[in-house]
Design goal:
This protein is α+β, with helices and mostly antiparallel strands. The chain contains six helices and eleven strands. Helix content is 30%, strand content 23%. The strands form four sheets. It has a four-stranded antiparallel β-sheet. Strands 2-3-9 form a three-stranded antiparallel β-sheet, with helices on one face. A two-stranded antiparallel sheet has the order 1-8.
């Protein structure tokens, strides 16, 4: 990705992340990697650089930092009913019904899903659905304990602070991050998923501990 590499090499991290997301989405479309017009994915990315955490996201996967025991959201859940998301969707010829793009898609930014990116007079950033990420920054500090990156199947069930409390308690009990990830998923899973609903969506979790050179 030429633009993204140039931006990163010149120290423009936010611009590099935006370029990387947009170039990746364009390359998927041109190479037909995303099979079908209604196939897509959210993304949440964390880059640590220049003593700062940069978090870029599209969709409703979320990154949360634990800072002195308190949850600090590093990403924005891109839902179609948010005013700025709704405005872009409607300006591109779409509508929001039942909090879904055109009554169908439950998020407003993603890779792929090219059926929502076909307005002939609008750039990629202004389509109904876009891969342009929002980017948040957080300085590294001794108060930072860990990060949680997870998809919406987790956040539909548990709040950011409750997830931080869950992880923090198990770290204090000397559980390894892999064990805690599995325990968090088990905690959020519904007992039965025959009817769908909360606890029945995809669930992926990553925990990254900030050790500051110390043993875990």
């Amino acid at each position: 990705f030429v633009s993204a590499n140039t931006d990163f090499l010149s120290g423009k991290t936010q611009l590099g992340l935006r370029s990387a997301f947009m170039e990746f989405d364009r390359s998927m479309m041109e190479s037909n990697v995303a099979k079908g017009e209604n196939t897509g994915s959210t993304a949440v990315v964390v880059v640590v650089r220049f003593g700062t955490i940069f978090c870029a996201n599209i969709g409703d996967s979320r990154a949360v930092a634990c800072v002195s025991g308190r949850a600090h959201d590093l990403s924005i859940d891109h839902k179609p009913n948010l005013p700025h998301e709704r405005d872009r969707i409607m300006s591109a010829g779409g509508f929001v019904d039942f909090n879904r793009v055109n009554g169908n898609l439950a998020l407003s930014r993603a890779f792929g899903d090219y059926a929502y990116k076909r307005h002939p007079d609008r750039p990629a950033e202004e389509q109904m659905l876009t891969a342009l990420p929002d980017i948040q920054e957080l300085p590294l500090s001794d108060s930072l304990e860990f990060l949680i990156l997870a998809c919406d199947g987790i956040w539909d069930v548990i709040s950011s602070q409750d997830a931080v409390n869950f992880v923090r308690k198990r770290i204090s009990d000397n559980q390894e991050p892999e064990e805690i990830c599995e325990a968090l998923i088990d905690h959020c899973l519904a007992p039965e998923c025959d009817m769908g609903g909360l606890g029945c969506d995809n669930m992926t979790v990553i925990i990254a501990a900030y050790l500051r050179g110390e043993p875990y």
